[in-house]
Amino acid sequence: MNKKANKTVLETILDWSADRPLWQRDALRRIVTGGTPDDDGVKDILALCKKEHGAEGIALVPAALEAAHLPTAPAGGESIALASVGDIAGVNQLAPGQSLPFEAAGLTIVYGPNGSGKSGYGRVLKRACRARKAGEIMPDAYNLPPPGKATGTFSILKDGVAAPPVSWTDDGKPDAVLSAVSVFDRDCGSVHVQEKNEVAFRPFGLDIPDDLAGICQALKQKLGAEETQLNAARDPVFDKPRWNPATPVGAIMSALSHDTDFAALEKLGEMSTDERARLARLDEDLLKNPADAAAEQRLFAGNVRQLIATLDRLAAAYGDEKLAGMKTLADAARDKRAAADFAARETFDGLSIPGVGGETWRALWEAARRYSDQTAYPGAPFPPTGDEACVLCHQALHADAKDRLGSFEAFVRADAELQAARAEQDYSEALAAFTARQPDVRVIAQARQRIALQNPGLARKVLRFVASADFRRLICLRALSTADPLNLPPFSPSPKAELEALAATLEAYATELDEAADAEGRDRLILERDSLTDRAAVADFLETAKKEIKRLDDLRIVRTCITDTATNAITKLGNDIADNVITPKMRDQFQSEIVRLAAEKVRVEIVRSGGQYGSPNYQVRLFANPKAKVHLVLSEGEQTCVALAAFLTEMATAQHKSALVFDDPVTSLDHRWREKVADRLVEETATRQIIVFTHDMVFVNDLHDKAVREAVPMKLVSLSRGPAGTGMVTDGLPWQHAGIRDRVDKLEKAAREARNLYDANDEEGYRDAAAKIYDRLRATWERGLEDVAFAGVIHRHRDYIDTKNLKRVTVIEDADVETFRKNFKKCSDLVDAHDPSRARDGAVPPPDDILADIKTLSDWADSIRGRQNALP
Question: What pLDDT is stored for residue 145 in this prediction?
Fold first, then answer.
């Protein structure tokens, strides 16, 4: 990598990330803005990786690392100092309305025990300023979170001159000004213990490739487990398939992949009735002798063709034209008979007996005619014209009777009657033929039942067609007896075409069965049978296929993601950046810092080693034994010194001298090194502003004493919990931890407040206030004995004796002892350590005496310190 000299490590990483997968760019953003992602963050990154490679149903949207996410160095090398931070909102349980002040030109010590809000302010500074592991700010877990993100206001100085306040919002993007301020805590150290038993030296930004590689390794592990599960989830049916690989369905099922066209398989599962019927035939016929099966198919085809002929006859017999002809004959016979009846009424209207000319009368007349012609008077005319007797009444006919019989015969011989008779004859013959015509029920039933086994739908069509023909016949019969018009319902659609196709199919199938007598033909039918069988089973295969396609797609995504987690490029990035950043000058500076912090106790150096998984290839190793496992050799305190040395090395090579913030840099395990760390931090105030957050009172004392000795401007601030929340700011330390000067200041303030009670003649109130002052004054004399007279050599409850200050004890004189004894006794006499005697009612010293007693303590301490400081 040819890293430009004017680019920072983070800018180099940003440029490099432009060609990386989007999920890695999102991971880089998380690392830069919030430190190493937690388990939930890693899960999100894994989801984004899968989404980038085609996984569906993931709502997360990646946000790539951008220039706005990078902390920026001050313009022109100007240095930034913090004057205060306040107006904090949305941060843990920090109380509103507080302002935390800082000493801009020296040392600020912020003391706070657990639960005081110290960590809340620390998180704000890490999020707002430059920190390796910024972490995450959480709202008050016990109340509804405030709207929006965490906010605050920073009062700052640029190169020692007050600048406009900076309004900060926790939006994940570093402020251009506050980025100059660097924050150190134990998680932010540049030295970290590696899983490979090495202690890596990683200046700011150099750990980012390592964190990214760590994420890649975590993802690879998770993806590997998923791959194993997906491989094990393969359905056993694919090892022993129920389909024939040579069929279309079998070919798809045997070659399923993540992009298999599932619709094509579904399409194959759509089978027509004919195809299902053919499958049934093949299943049955392949079990038989081919010749017998062919004969059965031809017989079936013959039955179908007989059915077709029957349906044709029905269509012809009950067609519109045929039935209309029947209706015409019926109407003609009826109409002509009506005309003949009309003629009869006109002719015989005067007769006394009705019905002459009617149908019954005509039958009687024709019977009389046959009787006359055949029996009574063969060869004679009818009706008789001579002396013959009447064939009906057997009496002689007179002239009127003969005339009447003649008129009857004339009527019968008339045209209207003849037409009516002929029309009735035609209709009668046609009706007899029509009613005699019936469909061949046996042929229809036999064929339809056989068809129903293979094609129920076609069988129903045949039945509906026959029923519609019979219905037309009945409608026609009803219409023949009336003069109403003939309204015929339509035929149901004729199944003739389908029946002809079925017959042709059966005949063709019979031919195929003939050909199946040889092995090749039989194999062809078997393959067709298997193809249809597999298609019929597609419904059973669909869910299996769908799951397998999903499994293969998931497997593809997982394997592609595994490829994406390769760390070669990340390792090269880390190594190249390390080669550019860790110069010989930086290594020399590191050695200098180690000596200042740990003298000769910790002898380590920075050496180049092989890179792996993105880890920068510079390690901290022991001078004496380079192969030793440093993390096992160095104590926690010694590791803290190495981490601080690395951090201060980075700061020493920066182009600006902005503030440094240390958040609990030491712990109780570091007690052997606390004083060295305190000395180094106070020493650094000559170069820049130093702010220390700590809960360790011994460390506070070490910092305080060093700052006093070096006359460094210093501000002591304590944090506590109050009714409004945590982070309540108070100048100085809590009374139990305050030093002599701080306590003297507090006692003087209390004495001045007591004077107000004295002047107001509030004797009871003044007595109580004075008693409290002398109680604390006595305690301060004890603290003076411990801290000043004995020079901190012995502290109550401390687990060691500080012998290096033993010489300072030698300045104590008899006058010092007498002053202590006298004033300590006075305080004890004025303090109600026990229930006082009823007879005792001593006077309380006036305010001026109290102030004088306090001054005595202050002068005593200053006198001893002066002599101690004068020691060679």
Answer: 63
Q: Which two tokens stand for residue 610?
A: 């092989």
CB 165: neighbour CB atoms within 10 A?
15
Strands 690-694 and 107-111: parallel
Higher pLDDT, 98 or 357: 98
CA–CA distance, 177 with 171 (Å, rounded to integer) = 15
Single-letter residue type at 244: N
- In angstroms, rounded to a whole number, what is the distance separating the alpha carbons of residues 790 and 808? 7
3-class DSSP state for residue 154?
A: strand
Q: Are 864 and 812 in contact (CB under 8 A)?
A: yes
Rounded-to-integer distance, Cα 782 and Cα 773, Å: 14
Q: How many CB atoms lie within 10 A of CB 766?
A: 20
pTM for the model stands at 0.57
State how far the alpha carbon of 235 is from the alpha carbons of 230, 538, 547, 549, in Å: 10, 16, 9, 11
Q: What are the tens digits of pLDDT across the range 574-601? A: 888 877 777 777 778 788 887 887 766 6
Residue 17 corresponds to which amino acid? S
> Are 682 and 690 contacting, i.e. CB atoms less than 8 angstroms apart?
yes
d(CA 606, CA 718): 38
8 Å CB contact between 195 and 651: no
Residues 789, 864: contact at Cβ < 8 Å?
Answer: yes
Question: For the segment 522-565, what is each residue's pLDDT rounded down to a tens digit?
Answer: 777 778 788 888 888 788 888 888 888 889 899 999 999 999 99
Q: Give CA angle at 156 (152, 160), nearest 5°.
A: 170
Q: Give the tokens for residue 849.
A: 């005496």
Q: What are the helix (H) ranges across 238-289?
A: 248-254, 262-268, 273-285
pLDDT exceeds 60 at position 421: yes
CA-based angle 197:202:205, to the nearest 5?
135
Residue 1 clears pLDDT 50, i.e. is over it? no
**Other CB atoms within 10 A of residue 500 CB:** 13
Residues 6+ apart with CB under 8 A from 653: 585, 586, 589
Cβ neighbors of 59 (< 8 A, separation 6 or more) are none
Query: Does residue 248 have a cis bond before it (omega within 30 degrees)?
Result: no
- Beta-bridge partner residues of 182: 130, 660
Q: Are 55 and 95 in contact (CB under 8 A)?
A: no
Placement of tokens 């099966």 in the chain: 293
Rounded to whole angstroms, how far apart are CA atoms 299 and 747?
126
Residue appearing with tokens 């490739």: 209
The structure tokens 């109340």 sit at 143
pLDDT cut 70: percent of the chain above it: 82
d(CA 250, CA 529): 13
The type of residue at 652 is A
Distance CA 297, CA 293 (A): 6
CA distance 605 to 595: 11
Largest CA distance in the chain: 202
pLDDT exceeds 60 at position 790: yes
**Quick check: 264 and 252 in contact, CB under 8 A?**
yes
Instruction: HSE, CB side, 13 Å, CA atoms: give it for residue 561.
Output: 32
Distance CA 633, CA 835 (A): 58
Compute CA 728 distance to the chain's CA centroid, rounded to the nearest angstrom. 41
Tokens of 339: 């005309």
Any idea what DSSP says for residue 786? I
At residue 766, the pLDDT reads 92
Between 244 and 145, the higher pLDDT residue: 244
Q: What is the residue type of 681?
A: L
User: Contact, 282 vs 532, CB < 8 A?
Assistant: yes
- What would you report as the CA-atom Rg of the chain, rounded to the nearest whole angstrom? 59
- What type of residue is 491? F
432 CB-near residues (< 8 Å, 6+ apart): none
HSE-CB of 61 using CA atoms within 13 angstroms: 0
| Token code pair at residue 740 | 């002599």
Instruction: For residue 148, give both structure tokens.
Output: 């929006």
Task: Identify the pLDDT of residue 780.
Answer: 93
